[in-house]
Design a protein that fits this description.
mainly alpha, about 450 residues, about 75% helix, single chain
Amino acid sequence: MLWNQMQQAHQEIGWDFYGPVIFFVVLVALGVPVWAAIGGGAVAMLLVSGVLPLSLLGESLFDGIDHFALTAVPLFILTGDVLVRTGLSRKFLDVAEALTCWARGGFGSATVLVCGMFSAISGSDAAGAAAVGRMTIARLVESGYPRPYACALVAAGACTGILIPPSIAYIIIGLVLGISAATLFQAALIPGILILTSILITNIIVNRRYAYEGGGLISAAEWAANLKKAIKNGWYAFIVPGVIFWGIFSGQLTPTEAGATAVVVTIIMGFILGTLKFSDFPAMLVSSAKVNGVILPIIAFSLPLAQTMAALGVPQGFVHAVTSMTDNPYVLILLMIAILIAAGCVMETTPNIVILAPILKPLADEIGMNEIQFCVMMITALGVGFITPPLGLNLFVVSGLTGDSILDIAARAVPFVFFMLLVVLLIAYVPWVSTVLLPAAYQ
């Protein structure tokens, strides 16, 4: 009924749209929490435009977050928290270090790999930046890396938190656009690995240029022995990502069920290892609830705002305005990427997804872009925003760990941004990258 009313209420875009948007920007600039600014913008747009009755706001708020798929969000966040508290995350670092100890810049590469491993469980970039940063930044500095660069390396590696499945961002965009999160997880696997590889390559190039860290200079036999020992001592830590990937990619478990299973498996392993006690549960639950408490209000208030913009015809108006300037699909794709990068620089991923996805999706449809490819391109482009100021959430996280200036860290992150943007362009212009693992119906 709500969507029928929205379609009937379509009208020309004017100050009933631009006024509330300016109001929203002012609120954000004044430091008002994003969820409150979005809520204020939604209410203002409803009041000024009158396209929908204000009484529907409450219904929309609760309906927007009343989805089974969203249950996966707190479950993956909790899994990441349990992983850190049980010490299993250190096993990932041991294996990653054993894999790369033979190479020049080995511990830097190990840091990037462990970011990817953590991402394959938690689905959260900020959690990965904090967890991996605590384990690696001091050792990176000891290995010869300048501390701002060490922070930038961790911040860049942690960007994979929303890019390598399971990812909270893909769950949210799937909810907004009505696409299966499991399908998006499959599509995101190769692009996520490509982003991780780009960060590895960047670190290798920078390390060779400035000689921050020397090689291990060990024989093949020593490398094999170190790797065998690390795997023997920490193989069980990989049960958790194994359960998640097997459950989702085999189709046996939904993302929510996989998240719940991962929580249970991680807790059981913590008790078996003796690294987890019942007294740890309150702190773990509170920590995870705080993170989840930031995400869900943003989703709740963003959805009625997106619905109101749809009722005002904003997506259609945007498509018309853009295509009237050019109908070249290559230029339009570049424009979408530029919008996403700019949005990622000033606002968090969740509100960007809920607000921009319904606006940009019709433009992607207009130029014939696969909807799965569009989602992967959007999330990957927004992921770059985690290491670009002024917002750059990962920059703030690692800066909080070390006290280094955010601008110093951001300056060292420029090479990572450049190589990540190359991957974004590859995803945008080569559909195969994000659809090759999907059934023929999605290609």
